[in-house]
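Entry 12.
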Amino acid sequence: MRAILHVDMDAFYASVEQHDRPELRGLPLIVGGSSNRGVVAAASYEVRRYGVHSAMPTRQALERCPHAIIVPPRMDRYQEVSAQVFAVFGEFTPLVEGLSLDEAFLDVTGSRALFGEPASIAAEIKTRIRARTGLTASVGVAHNKLLAKIASDLRKPDGLCVIAPDEVATVLDGLPIRRLAGIGAKTAARLDAAGIATFGDLRQASDAVLWPLFGRYTQRVRDRASGIDERPVVADWQEKQVSAEETFDRDLRRREELLAELARLADRAGVRLRHKGLLAGSVTVKIRRADFTTYTRARSFQPPTRDTGTVLAVARELLEAWLAEQPRAAVRLLGVGLSQLSPEAQLDLFAAPAGGPRPPMIAAGTARTASLDPTLDQIREKFGKQAVQRASSLDRGPKEDGFTDARRRP
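Predicted 3D structure (tokens):
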């Protein structure tokens, strides 16, 4: 039988901040945007007691806990700590399926001969994570991914929970139905109206009750409520997209201002792409208006690139086309996403022969920026992200309301 672990760091972003700044320990802490449009990225356990949770608007969080402390996210630091955590995983098994910076499935079926029973492996992983990062993790142990994930959440924080095969019904049947992955608020309300409040209710419900709610997925949902899950841990999962986006403190309308913001976002996405050693074959621009209507415009191209200049050129064309359709539209969010990703080693396959024409999309100007990109990356790594900026990211036009910068965060 398989042995699967689900490891979930406890209040990860907030815990990193409290570890790095001891004066924040024990205090209600929010990591996220502090503006009236900010969103909670992470909430410490101290502030969760007030009903504050991630993805909640900051304004609402402060209504529930007015004395909460807000700090901006430090993604570089979280990625650094995440690398330490995942290094621990790799010491026990190569079968690691990362779900985010702070969460992963591990298949330790083949690790038992070296490291002992799954519960012992889970305990040792928790010990090593704490020794190297100062942080706690909660681990669920079971024979499939579904049960391992449920188990990791049952004894948070700093928990270790094992669901044995003969305990599945005992553990699951009394759990509220909202703990089942994929059951959102609307579905939960419909289930409640049908008299289904727990896993056990769902497992025992008839097709006549479930079919109107789930249709052809009825049996799959019943299987999940019964703890049945045959999904393997996929260790070779590849990232689907590298992106950067920004929600503005005020709506933007001027074309020049939007293009300057777009350049900053393309630059950030390009840095992340190169940091991961990837090439992108498609660019997507995400635009959200003041009324929350969201638009996406995408374009694929060949050969794939890691060049910020190429990314920006495509993104700019996409945004300009949208602006032509909706001139002077008020924009509250802008984003640049890079997809159709491939390893950077593939770049040589598309290189032009000596003296020959350049491949499509890599004109002379963008070729120059491609050679410039690594230099800018090195300068920023050594002296900070604000040490140097591209001219295209500077909006030299007049501001409509006197602000010098519309961004919520640098």
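Annotation: The first strand starts at residue 4 and ends at 9. The CA atoms of residues 267 and 308 lie 6 Å apart.
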